[in-house]
Design a protein that fits this description.
644 residues, alpha/beta, Endonuclease, Chain A, 19 helices, globular, PPK_N_dom_sf
Length: 644
């Protein structure tokens, strides 16, 4: 296909992601949602935007220093042009979010929960605030006057500080460190909350006494997190190199400076100078709270009955009828499918726990990317090793923002006797594969393979939509054996028959499936493709999707987040539709269907359609051949697109 055909049919990745976060914000603005649920979506919006600045804005700032600067293959923009567009859109979103916060706070106030401003309090509540400051906050504060003997302090990533202008060129800084972001009180009039930073700002003039600040504002620094560990750093001790990497990342340059109040031009200039911010780094004042913690803290701090009345009922996962007794025996009857969070992850956890004690189990192999705290899965693997099983854990230490957690788990699993490897040089292992080997006395071990779309994480399994397929299919089992053997040898080029394994076969087989539908359409037969993933930005795939639409294939994309293809362009993508679902559960499923009704080919797996997943990660997709599992997946698709 002509390389230029896709131009004009594509969207900048960063703007596409911001459009996704706008959809999250729209959930917070739904009056039909209970107020605490709306507040939770606000917290998610702020947390998402924080990560976007730390990673994506940080990357654009880094790219601006390159010569020549790279050009975006979706728009032809330079990094500077992308950054300008991103900051305009981000400012628009933050302004909108400030208005949404006001509406949600009004909703909460009508229910008896108020957010108070220190300067507006009087009477008993003012006295309560004063005691809170005197007894709990003031002893922990160390106000600094910046001069030759008191250098400007390091403000940690996403740490709040109160900054005061003490004179024409003198700053005062009060670091808030690990102080709680929100404090909730209860009295006869109801529940009321104070932002800790606002309380410290209110009392800051008293801390500086005779220096009499001209103004005080609350600020927050967000730092770059776009740092890549160099493989050569860990030639002898990769775990130690990752510990050092995490420490270095905490000290990278700022990518955004936020203010909770509008500072004077003088104060803003002084602070930017002290932080050595280049012109490209944004600073802004906002009505939106600086830290997402306020949204997640309030519900936990309210009286339980009040919190319950302001939230939607908690949905419990349905009982899994087949998951009784010996789980492996149930899977041996035929393939099984778990659909989280509508069903519990417990059957899989129980499978591992039973395998740990089963004398017929000789070995367990598993890829681990993000584990929950106090993970029962990790505990089962450790117990299996302690019971003499051969347990191999491919534990990816480079899982962004989970590095420290994974380092700790690697030590725990090694101490228990597991063999732990840390992924591959140059490739993150993001696949979700577990292989259990049974020694029944035959020529080859019997296999039970689990392949999923989500992490082995009990917490996120209750929050994210994901699929988990369990099968004793011998072809899939042999492919899984090859996968783990290749990972042990440090080889990303995995040979496989049934499984699609990135980086070798995932994209080629994906394109081949689309080619098959293109051939059907050109022969005048019904042709169809349904692709449900989290993100899509890969240009070879985008060009193939355009080709499919032009050939007459009906293409339904179900993409939660980044989606860099434009639908509905006459002559190019007019047979392509895109749907994005943002709701109570985070859409995380990767599900593919090719073929018109009656000849569907179904696959699930771990990888999105991003360049990194297709080219720089180990990902695994599996075909779904079991009739009952296929029926379940077709129901999932039918819910998404009722015309099927």
């Amino acid at each position: 296909m002509d390389e230029t055909v896709a131009y004009g049919c594509t969207v900048n990745r960063e703007l596409s992601w911001l459009a996704f976060n706008r959809r999250v914000l729209e959930e917070a603005d739904l009056e039909s949602r209970p107020p605490l649920d709306r507040l939770t979506f606000l917290g998610i919006f702020i947390s998402n935007l924080d990560e976007f600045y730390r990673v994506r804005v940080g990357s654009l700032l880094d790219q601006m220093a390159l010569e020549p600067p790279p050009v975006d293959d979706k728009t032809g923009w330079t990094p500077a042009q992308q950054l300008a567009a991103v900051l305009r859109e981000a400012d628009s979103l933050v302004d909108l979010a400030g208005a949404v916060v006001s509406r949600v706070r009004a909703d909460l106030a009508r229910a008896g929960v108020s957010f108070e401003r220190p300067e507006q309090l009087d009477g008993p509540r003012a006295a309560v605030m004063a005691r809170f400051y005197k007894d709990e906050l003031k002893p922990l504060l160390s106000p600094l006057t910046i001069d030759a003997h008191h250098p400007f302090p390091f403000i940690r990533d996403r740490e709040e500080a109160v900054v005061c202008r003490l004179g024409k060129r003198t700053l005062g800084v009060i670091l808030l460190g690990r102080l709680p972001r929100l404090r909730v009180f209860n009295d006869e009039a109801g529940a009321w909350a104070l932002h800790t930073s606002a309380v410290v700002r209110f009392f800051a003039p008293k801390l500086y006494g005779r220096q009499e600040p001209n103004e005080c504002v609350v600020c927050r620094v967000t730092r770059n997190a776009d740092l890549t560990v160099e493989e050569s750093e860990g030639e002898t001790d990769f775990r130690g190199a990752m510990r050092d990497f995490v420490r270095r990342r905490k000290k990278l340059a700022p990518v955004c400076l936020q203010f909770a109040q509008q500072p004077s031009k003088e104060l803003e200039a002084l602070l930017r100078d002290r932080l050595a911010l280049p012109d490209a780094v944004q600073s802004r004042a906002q009505d939106l709270p600086l830290d997402p913690a306020f949204a997640f803290t309030l519900a936990k701090a309210l009286p339980p009955e009040l919190a319950k009345s302001l939230s939607a009922p908690t949905r419990k996962p349905a009982a899994v009828a087949w998951a009784q007794g010996d789980i492996a025996a149930r899977v041996a009857e035929h393939g099984r499918l778990l659909h989280f969070p509508f069903e519990s992850i417990n059957p899989f956890v129980k499978l591992l726990e039973q395998a740990a004690d089963d004398p017929k189990v000789s070995a367990i192999r598993i890829t681990l990317y993000r584990l929950s705290s106090n993970s029962r899965i990790a505990q089962a693997l450790a117990r299996a090793a302690e019971n003499g099983k051969d347990v191999l854990c491919v534990l990816e230490l480079r899982a962004r923002f989970d590095e420290e957690n994974n380092i700790n788990y690697s030590e725990m699993l090694q101490d228990a006797g597991c063999t732990v490897i840390y992924g591959l040089p140059g490739y993150k292992v993001h696949a979700k594969v577990c292989l259990i080997l049974y020694n029944d006395g035959g020529d080859e071990p019997r296999t039970l393979t689990q392949i999923g779309t989500g992490n082995y994480n009990e917490k996120t399994a209750a929050l994210y939509t994901d699929l988990s397929y369990l099968t004793t299919d011998p072809t899939i089992g042999r492919d899984a054996i090859r996968l783990f053997r290749a990972l042990c040898l440090g080889d990303p080029e995995v040979e496989s028959d049934a499984l699609w394994v990135a980086p070798k076969s995932f994209l080629p087989r994906l394109l081949a499936q689309l080619d098959q539908e293109i051939a059907e359409a050109r022969a005048g037969r019904p042709a169809y493709a349904f692709l449900k993933v989290n993100s899509l930005n890969n240009m070879p795939l985008i060009r193939k999707l355009i080709e499919a639409s032009q050939a007459g294939v009906t293409v339904d994309l179900h993409v939660r987040g980044i989606c860099c293809i434009r639908p509905g362009i006459p002559g190019k993508t007019d047979r392509l539709t895109i749907r994005s679902i943002v709701g109570d559960s985070l859409e995380h499923t990767r599900l593919l269907c090719f073929g018109a009704p009656g000849r569907e080919r179904l696959f699930i797996g771990s990888g999105d359609f991003l360049n990194r997943n297709l080219n720089r990660r180990v990902e695994v997709y599996t075909p779904i051949l079991d009739p009952d599992c296929r029926k379940d997946l077709l129901k999932v698709i039918a819910v998404s697109y009722t015309h099927l």
